[in-house]
Amino acid sequence: MTAAVPGGAAASLRPGPTGPAATGSGPTGAERAARLRRLALTTLDANWEHDHTVPSRTLYPHQWSWDSAFIAVGLAHVRPDRAWRELRTLFAAQWADGRVPHIVFNPALRVGSYFPGPEFWDAGRADGAPARATSGIVQPPVHAPAAWLVHRRAPSEASVAALHRLYPRLVAQQRYLTGRRDVGGGGLACIVHPWESGLDNSPAWDAPLAAVPADVAVMRAYRRHDTAHADAAHRPTDLDYARYVTLVDAYRAGRYRDEGLLGRHPFLVECPLVNAVLGMSEHALARIATVVGADPGPHRDRATRITEALVTRLWDPATGTFHPRDLRTGRLIPARTVLGLMPLILPDLPPRQVQSVLAEACSPRFGLAARMDRPLPTHDRTAPDFEPLRYWRGPSWINTTWMLWRGLLTHHRPDLAAGLRESLFALVDRGGCHEYFHPDTGAGLGSPAFSWTAALLLDALADG
After folding, report:
1. What is the pLDDT of residues 227-264, one digit of tens each?
2. Which residue among 56, 387, 412, 428 is the one 20 to 30 A from 301 at the CA level?
3. Bias regions of kind Low complexity — which residues (predicted)?
4. CATH number of 36-462
5. Known catalytic residues?
């Protein structure tokens, strides 16, 4: 694995020329594809933990919600039984109100081995919590699209049976997010914590987080484990974590109830990624419904309404991209991040928005091209607060790259999709299956042997 390097110290990541060696159609490309496939499979097998896959053996020793969905997509190509077990294990910890917790804790690990652990969340005292120890918040609902992709990649009687079992739970998840979490009343789900977006310390959250009272001294009561395994300069700051703890304290004090959030919770944001995935999930559920004998019509109708609400509430014609909306202030958050590109995963996104978001993605801010000199960053490269080493404040991540790649295919841009896919391969070929990557050099950052990097690599390799 490539070690992390300081920003700008090495040459930019420059994939080789297009053609057989780059695309995987010639001997060199075939050899690289086989090598990457072996690396991905080895990573996933090493991270399998009896009924689920841990994101990594170092930083993340439990089961994470959207990680498991991405992991299932990759496992469908090599271990389809495990793919279904991954999803089944996660949804066994679903709450009675339909929420799928963002962490399901492994009871075999000692108390205090991870922060924030089950004792911090204290979710068992909340109404409707499962018997298994979990967190009390959610992550983007990528699970219905994942279930559909697993079935499509490895269709069988067993996969149909798995869809029958999972379908009502997926519907309940959607109902929770479109119902209890529609705090703004405009047809979109809101998040109550940056962790729910999946992009924990994105600059998109700086403005609403600045209004959250926090004292760094609060962190003295806890021991962060992430900085024991990764460079602190690459992770969220202690001030970030103090605010994260403050937000959990506020939500936990109400026993994770969602009634009256607008009047009492200090962080309420409608996120473009979360809601684009929410709409994509309804499209996936419509397809699943046709397999399990349910009516796909309501899912299609809800998908249309979510896309319309996304454009109405989160689209900014002045910038030509999507932005989160802070429900506490009623204003769009100005930071231009990869979140604004994610609505391209919606097949019914109107042409005006498609073209404008593509222009944003191809601008110097993100550098999407048919032949990319550098990987896709998670924040505007030209912004003064762009940080190439710090978590979601600049580095390149495989999951956002993979989602945009699928969106480009959806909107019939195979040229740009091919460039992004090649960039993904070049990152892992040079840096290994790392958690994230330097957006200029391609050096691996964060945890090595990261599961969703391996899984989504397998999926991208299969679509050659």
Report:
1. 566 666 777 778 888 899 999 999 999 999 999 999 89
2. 412
3. 15-31
4. 1.50.10.10
5. 200, 435
Strand order across the beta sheet in which 325-326 lies:
269-270, 325-326, 331-332
Quote the pLDDT of residue 59: 87
Among the listed residues 222, 270, 262, the one whose alpha carbon sits nearest the alpha carbon of residue 244: 222
Taking the C-alpha atoms of residue 117 and residue 338, their distance in angstroms, rounded to an integer, is 29
State the Cα–Cα distance between residues 336 and 379, nearest whole angstrom.
Answer: 6
- Contact status, residue 405 vs residue 368, Cβ threshold 8 Å: no
Question: What is the pTM assigned to this prediction?
Answer: 0.92
d(C-alpha 198, C-alpha 196), whole Å:
5
Those residues whose C-beta lies under 8 Å from the C-beta of residue 389, and which sit 6 or more positions away, are 4, 6, 7, 231, 233, 234, 395, 438, 445
Q: Which residues contact 2 (CB under 8 A, 6 or more apart)?
A: 430, 431, 432, 434, 442, 443, 444
- CB 194, CB 205: distance < 8 Å: yes
- The confidence score (pLDDT) of residue 213 equals 85
Q: Residue 378 and residue 202: Cα distance in Å, rounded? A: 8
Residue ranges for the chain with pLDDT beneath 50: 1-25
pLDDT recorded at residue 222: 64
Query: How far is residue 43's CA from residue 52's CA, in Å, rounded to a whole number?
Result: 14
Q: How high is the pLDDT of residue 2?
A: 31
CA distances from 294 to 5, 105, 165, 299 (A): 52, 33, 13, 10
Please check whether residue 47 is in contact with residue 81, taking contact to mean a CB–CB distance below 8 angstroms: no
Confidence at residue 166, expressed as pLDDT on a 0 to 100 scale: 98
Per-residue tokens: 200: 């924990």
CA neighbor of 335 nearest in space, from 270, 393, 264? 393
* DSSP reduced 3-state for 168: helix
